[in-house]
Design a protein that fits this description.
The protein has a single domain (about 10-150), classed as 3-Layer(aba) Sandwich (Rossmann fold). The protein contains three helices and nine strands; from the N terminus they run E-H-E-H-E-E-E-H-E-E-E-E. The protein is about 25% helix and about 40% strand. The strands form two sheets. It has a six-stranded mixed β-sheet with strand order 4-3-2-5-6-7, with helices on both faces. It starts with a strand and ends with a strand. Helix 1 (about 10-25) packs across helix 2 (about 45-50). Its EC number is 2.4.2.8. Pathway: Purine metabolism; IMP biosynthesis via salvage pathway; IMP from hypoxanthine: step 1/1. Pfam families: Pribosyltran. This is Hypoxanthine phosphoribosyltransferase.
Length: about 170
């Protein structure tokens, strides 16, 4: 396994998170915001983002997966659901990366069934080349090519999440 040089540096990431937080703060001013982090991958981005949002907010989490060792199974599993009441609240789903869109679309549909006042989606990385299901994304950190990346919460086999930057990952035999 090889983790290459930073594809996105710590400085680039910090600038983008602040930029996103500023826009989100303005968009949600005076609203009843519940920010929902999609675990595990979004935990670093989510933490950085919510600490920079100036609007009062509540936080919650959900855990969903459709990946096994870097490959999408297409079968979305919900391991932990949002515990807060979301009816009549303004929901911001925060995701690490959107590639096929399968998992996020499943989560989005599940949240919409619970009757939020509004639902917007923020993703740190957007990999449109792999999209199989179109999901509306309201806030996008970076659009990236079809490379497998790790770091800043993203993993391969639950490793490399602790890298402070994003790196392209290559499997070696």
């Amino acid at each position: 396994m090889v983790v290459g040089r930073p594809f996105l540096t710590v400085e680039q990431i910090q600038r983008k998170v602040k930029e996103l937080a500023d826009v989100i703060s303005n968009d949600y001013e005076g609203k009843d915001l519940l920010a929902v982090g999609i675990l595990k991958g979004a935990f670093v981005f989510f933490s950085d983002l919510v600490r920079m949002i100036r609007t009062p907010l509540m936080v919650d989490f959900l855990i969903a997966s459709s990946y096994l060792r870097g490959d999408s199974t297409g079968d979305v599993k919900l391991h932990y659901d949002i515990r807060q009441e979301i009816a009549d609240k303004d929901i911001l789903l925060v995701e690490d990366i959107v590639d096929t869109g399968i998992t996020l679309n499943c989560i989005r549909e599940r949240v919409l069934m619970k009757g939020p006042r509004s639902l917007r989606i923020c993703t740190f990385l957007d990999k449109t080349e792999r999209r199989e299901v179109q999901v509306p994304l309201d806030y996008i950190g970076f659009s990236i090519p079809n490379e497998f990346v790790v770091g800043y919460g993203l993993d391969y086999d639950n490793k490399f999440r602790n890298l402070p930057y994003i790196s392209v990952f290559k499997k070696t035999t």
